[in-house]
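Thread: Newbie trying to understand structure tokens

Hi all, I'm a second-year student working on a class project, and my supervisor (Dr. K.) asked me to get a predicted structure for one chain before our next meeting. I've only ever worked with sequences, so writing a 3D structure as a token string is new to me. If someone could post the tokens and maybe explain what I'm looking at, I'd be very grateful. Here's the chain:
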Amino acid sequence: MSAESGIPTFRDAGGLWEGHDVMDVASPQGWAKNRELVLDFYNKRRQNVKEAQPNSAHIALAQLQDKFEMNIITQNVDDLHERAGSKKVLHLHGEINKSRSTGDPDLIYDVKESGIHIGDKCERGYQLRPHIVWFGEEVPEMVDAMDITSQANILLVIGSSLGVYPAASLLSYARSTIPVYYIDPNVPDYKFEPNMVHIQEKATVGMEIFIKEFLNSR
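---
Reply by user tm_fold:
Sure, no problem. This is what the structure looks like when written as tokens:
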């Protein structure tokens, strides 16, 4: 979703993210091995997010709030949905502009302009880390995401490989009677059900097609 805004992903990068092995910068093991590397990595990613702008797909989703009750469940950790105007955004994998305590996960803070550094601590004296769900960690927002998905009347999936779990399992919580639209230029290793339509385009183009050919016809 955010790739067209210039925010790199590691989905097709052969296990590398901006030149780093993803396990070195996005896992508890990587954090234990080299905290300074992890913090520096996310400080740079945070700057990248700051410089990026919402693309037309972000904006189109926000505009749909005028006609529908919209809930966005995103695997992206940036704030482009919010900056585009979307109000109900659930971040499955955390938020890059927030930090949290390594000793108390309920202590979450906005990240300062200077980023997060070794020695930055929560009010209880624990080192702060990025508020990101790393590989191998639980996804706390999954329960709320399952509830939202189970109540949906239309499900729109954008830019997902449908291969990252547990996020990909959300499709199984949608009612089999509702229409599901999947926007992605790639063909996933996934068996499409009869109620699913694949719009084989990138997010910006796919959203135009979705609104013109499917949404306006309802």
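A couple of things are worth pointing out once you decode it. The mean pLDDT is 92. DSSP finds seven helices and ten strands in the chain. Feel free to ask follow-ups in this thread.
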